[in-house]
From TrEMBL:
InterPro entries: AOAH, AOAH_Saposin_N, GDSL, Saposin-like, SaposinB_dom, SGNH_hydro_sf. GO terms for biological process: lipid metabolic process. One of its GO terms (cellular component) is extracellular region. It catalyses: a 3-(acyloxy)acyl derivative of bacterial toxin + H2O = a 3-hydroxyacyl derivative of bacterial toxin + a fatty acid + H(+). This is Acyloxyacyl hydrolase. SUPFAM superfamilies: Saposin, SGNH hydrolase. Heterodimer of the large and small subunits; disulfide-linked. PROSITE patterns: SAP_B. It is found in: Cytoplasmic vesicle; Secreted. It is an enzyme of class 3 (hydrolase).
């Protein structure tokens, strides 16, 4: 039988590894307190707080609340067993301290999970006791002075130093650091295992014993004998002898989606139900094992590569699912190469995990979205640690050169700007954190101060009461965004087109408020920093299409339209006019003045665009979806790439662009794909 103390180490192993690579930016500064020590303190305060609140909510003893908490945890990863062992080891002391009206800060300092090092400030989440801290701590230590557990140090222990766990620790750490699957038999960077960088992060391998079979590759001999690209299409149609892959996918221009991101792109998320006593139940922790083995990230639900249904009932789909919906030949072709703490500085450490072969694979849409950690850190003085514009230029160019050497020709790369994070403090600082909602005793300002003190804050610059520091952080973020914009405007690459997109945060807030939402709802409630799932949905469409174009961007867009649209000059003028109007600008001399007068509201926009502002008769039906799909039968409606094979070009130009340029929420992401990401969907009718 296994030793109970060996079992005790298994579950915290995943949590420890997750926290060590958590949302706090990585750095090489050895002078600051250990991340693991800080996270240990945070974890202790959270757990003790939950125990105390469970006793309050259920009007029970501390002992009963600890047992209740353990009963909620699943058996997987020995979480339930670990919890009961922890109670057996620390429970008696926790009961004594809480019974003496000591709060979670005092309990964790007494048990030495939190420590105040010499010369360091006292880090606390709750208001300080009425009596002096020194006196209160001495009193608490007197209560547990005979406890045997105080003889052992916990903050400096290393689970992975145990021989029985050293090998698995090393392999899991390697998977996390290099962003490759833990379980990958054929070493093709794709896995049949969901977590530990498996198919929650990139398309599921359909043959883990053959390295030449993986998602995103061009079919081998039209997949007559096997499904070499894992899109589910292979074999030969017995009716005409044509391979299914050739029949369904030839000419459809499949493209994969690849995200190079940080914790926001990986969809870092700590469920509020895990720390809210009044909402806690067995169902609250069902997904905890999955979260722990995914580094507390949820890439399977992310806005870029998510493929599972939203946990909050939102119907909007990820970029990957949008591409899949338009072309089922894109099935499983997604890669989320994101990492907690990632930035332009450390991307080179794990970009090698990107899987794309110039000669064998399909082109891809790559989104570079390092939206925070180049200006964010947990240091007490975060400004010197911020990436400079010059260094960002060097880092990004190195990344782009790597992409150019790996991406197939015809790919697209989008550089994503940084947000203005002053929104966080302005909208959250005086609100109660989930941990403080029961007793109205913990605000986000207190949480931010606690994390900053421990130097484990995901972003001290923005999560700070210092307005000057918040302003400096936003100014540097704007400088870095301008650097990315200049790179996109001036640099050219042989294998991909390069674009830039602003992180239009204020426009997102305005749109959310129009829908009846409150700005603070756009942020993850537990960490008070990351975008929550609702915001991820908005980022897919509204963010990219609501931004106002400046003169330089407008000139570039007009030039792109003229160079890519296979239509006459009058049609280009019409399109430019429509785009200018929905971008918030006047139509000027572009087209008849009546166009501008008529395109005034969303309800009238479709009709106006449908008729080319009245220059063509209104058609009562739309061509899309009118007939069954070609090749994939009833599974796919008539797709846009199929239209030019069956319809004359001129007849359907305005109606399809009416759908493309509509401001309706239903079609807003189509706008991005048609007009911002040329080639991301297959529209040979308009785009080359």
């Amino acid at each position: 039988m296994q030793s109970p103390w060996k079992i005790l180490t298994v579950a915290p192993l995943f949590l420890l590894l997750s926290l060590q690579s958590s949302a706090s930016p990585a750095n090489d500064d050895q002078s600051r307190p250990s991340h693991s020590n800080g996270h240990t303190c945070v974890g202790c305060v959270l757990v003790v707080s939950v125990i105390e609140q469970l006793a309050q909510v259920h009007n029970s003893t501390v002992q009963a609340s600890m047992e209740r908490l353990c009963s909620y945890l699943p058996e997987k990863l020995f979480l339930k067993t670990t919890c009961y062992l922890v109670i057996d080891k620390f429970g008696s002391d926790i009961i004594k301290l809480l019974s003496a009206d000591m709060n979670a800060d005092v309990v964790c300092h007494t048990l030495e999970f939190c420590k105040q090092n010499t010369g360091q400030p006292l880090c606390h989440l709750y208001p300080l006791p009425k009596e002096t801290w020194k006196f209160t701590l001495q009193k608490a230590r007197q209560i547990v002075k005979k406890s045997p557990i105080l003889k052992y140090s916990r903050s400096g222990s290393d689970i992975c130093s145990l021989p029985v766990l050293a090998k698995i620790c090393q392999k899991i750490k390697l998977a996390i650091e290099q962003s490759v699957p833990f379980k990958d038999v054929d070493s093709d960077k794709y896995s049949v295992f969901p977590t530990l960088r498996g198919y929650h992060w990139r398309g599921r391998d359909c043959n883990d014993s053959d390295e030449s079979v993986y998602p995103g590759r061009r079919p081998n001999n039209w997949d007559v004998h096997q499904d070499s690209n894992c899109n589910g299409i292979w074999g030969v149609d017995p009716k005409d002898g044509v391979p299914y892959e050739k029949k369904f996918c030839e000419g459809s221009q499949p493209r994969g989606i690849i995200l190079l991101g940080d914790s926001a792109g990986a969809h870092f998320h700590i469920s509020p139900e895990w720390i809210t006593a009044s909402q806690m139940s067995m169902n609250s922790f069902i997904n905890l094992p999955t979260a722990l083995t995914n580094e507390l990230d949820w890439p399977q639900l992310s806005g870029a590569t998510g493929f599972l249904d939203s946990t909050v009932g939102i119907k909007e789909k990820s970029i990957y699912l949008r591409l899949w919906k338009r072309n089922h030949c894109n099935h499983r072709d997604y890669q989320n190469i994101s990492r907690n703490g990632a930035s332009s500085r450390n991307l080179k450490k794990f970009i090698e995990s990107l899987s794309r072969n110039k000669m064998l694979d399909y082109p891809a849409i790559v989104i570079y979205a390092m939206i925070g950690n180049d200006v964010c850190s947990g240091k007490s003085d975060p400004v010197p640690a911020m990436t400079t514009p010059e260094k960002l230029y060097s880092n990004v160019m190195q990344t782009l050169k790597h992409l150019n050497s790996h991406l197939p020709n015809g790919s697209h790369v989008i550089l994503y700007g940084l947000p203005d994070g002053t929104f966080l403090w302005d909208n959250l600082h005086n609100r109660y954190h989930p941990l403080g909602q029961l007793n109205k005793d913990v605000t986000y300002a207190q949480l931010y101060s606690f994390l900053n003190c421990l130097q484990v804050s995901p972003c001290h610059g923005w999560m700070s009461s210092n307005k000057t520091l918040r302003t400096l952080t936003s100014e540097r973020a704007e400088q870095l965004s301008n650097t990315l914009k200049k790179i996109a405007a001036s640099e050219k690459f042989t294998n991909f087109n390069l674009f830039y997109m602003d992180f239009a945060f204020h426009e997102i807030i305005q749109e959310w408020q129009k829908r009846g939402g409150q700005p603070w709802q756009l942020i993850e409630p537990v960490d008070g920093f990351h975008p929550n799932e609702r915001k991820s949905i908005l980022l897919k469409g509204i963010l990219m299409t609501s931004q106002t174009l400046d003169n330089q961007e407008w000139t570039q867009l007009t030039s792109w339209i003229k160079g890519n649209l296979t239509c006459d000059s009058r049609t280009r003028e019409w399109l430019c006019c429509c785009w200018r109007i929905i971008s918030g600008k006047r139509c000027s001399s572009s087209g008849p003045k009546s166009w501008e007068r008529r395109i005034r509201s969303t309800p009238r926009l479709n009709r106006c665009l449908e008729t080319k502002a009245g220059t063509e008769p209104l058609r009562s039906t739309h061509p899309w979806g009118a007939q069954g799909g070609r090749g994939l039968g009833k599974l796919i409606p008539q797709t846009l790439w199929g239209l030019p094979r069956h319809r004359p070009k001129g007849l359907f130009f305005s109606s399809i662009f009416a759908k493309c340029l509509s401001l309706n929420e239903e079609h807003i992401w189509t706008t991005v794909q048609c007009c911002v990401l040329p080639g991301s969907v297959t529209l040979p009718l308009f785009l080359k």
